[in-house]
Structures are given as structure tokens and as C-alpha cells.
Write a structure and sequence with these properties.
There is one protein chain. The protein is mainly alpha-helical. It has helices spanning 12-71, 102-111, 126-130, 134-140, 156-164; strands at residues 81-84, 87-90. The protein has a two-stranded antiparallel ribbon with strand order 1-2. It is flat.
């Protein structure tokens, strides 16, 4: 059996000082992450401003190509796609399901016993499983592990107020 390693701390004061250091490091990390997020947001705004005219031109070109193809739809009667030098254009038959209210359609499908038209997401209800007896848990191949988890939580507010003083 492996021997447990001894802690570097011998007194609660040492643990308390380490909690302070842990909190200071977490504060430092949060500031760095905050700066990163600010820079990311600035870059997003800048790139959005740069992309706006490009996106507008893309939409305009797509609209004009669509208009041209609609006006020349007879070109696609025998062949559904056109291969050009710089790309291809094609018509595809697609289907969409359109409904005014998803909830009312779901209710109607259930009333008409058309449940096979519904998707049901199955997942474990862990709270309900925890209520089962040990015999049933064994039958379904589940075990519940209870453990005493240590929670280390520095008092960030106290640490920040001490840093300002």
C-alpha cells in the first residue's frame, strides 16, 4: 500500500496564509481573463465594422446571381446545375416543414396517436435514481458513491480589501 504524502503545512496559520495567496492568484487570473475578454470584444467590434461592407457586397452579388438564374430558369430544365469557370450554380429540390405553433402541432400529434412523429430525448434523472433501493441499483448496474469533498474557498472580498489598505 502506498504511503500517504505528508502536507507541507504544519499549522492552521500556514493554511490561512496559503488561502490568502490562493485568493490573490485567483484575483490576478480574473484580471488577466477580464483584460483578454475586453481585447476580444474590441477585436470583435473592429472586425464586425470591417466585415459589414463585405457582407453587404456578398449579399448583393448573391441577390443578383439569384435574380439572373430566376430569369434564366429554363437553362436548368435539362440539367440541374451549371458549371462555370469560377464555380457552379445548381437548383436542388428541398422540403421544409412549416407550422404556426410547434406546441399545438405536438399536442395534435399526441391526440392523433402519431407519437412516432415526435423525437423524445432520453436522459438519466439522477435525482430519481438516487432514491432507488440498493437492490434495484445493482440490477440496473448503477452504484452511488458518497464522498466527502473538500471545498477550498478563499475570501476574495477580504483579500481585495486588505490589498487596498
Amino acid at each position: 500500500m502506498a504511503k500517504k504524502k505528508e502536507s507541507i503545512y504544519t499549522k492552521w496559520d500556514e493554511v490561512d496564509n496559503s488561502l490568502k495567496r490562493l485568493g490573490e492568484l485567483q484575483i490576478k487570473k480574473s484580471k488577466i481573463e477580464g483584460n483578454l475578454n475586453e481585447k476580444i470584444n474590441e477585436l470583435k467590434v473592429k472586425s464586425q465594422a470591417e466585415c459589414t461592407p463585405i457582407i453587404a457586397e456578398i449579399k448583393q452579388i448573391e441577390k443578383e446571381i439569384t435574380r439572373f438564374c430566376e430569369q434564366n430558369k429554363e437553362s436548368f430544365i435539362n440539367k440541374r446545375n451549371k458549371k462555370l469557370n469560377f464555380g457552379s450554380i445548381s437548383y436542388r429540390l428541398s422540403e421544409r416543414v412549416v407550422c404556426t405553433s410547434v406546441q399545438s402541432v405536438i399536442k395534435s400529434l399526441k391526440l392523433l396517436c402519431l407519437d412516432h412523429c415526435l423525437r423524445v430525448k432520453e436522459e438519466l434523472d439522477k435525482d430519481k435514481i438516487k432514491e432507488l433501493d440498493s437492490n434495484t441499483l445493482t440490477k440496473i448496474g448503477v452504484s452511488i458513491i458518497k464522498e466527502d469533498k473538500l471545498n477550498i474557498e478563499p475570501n476574495i472580498i477580504e483579500i481585495v480589501s486588505n490589498q487596498k489598505a
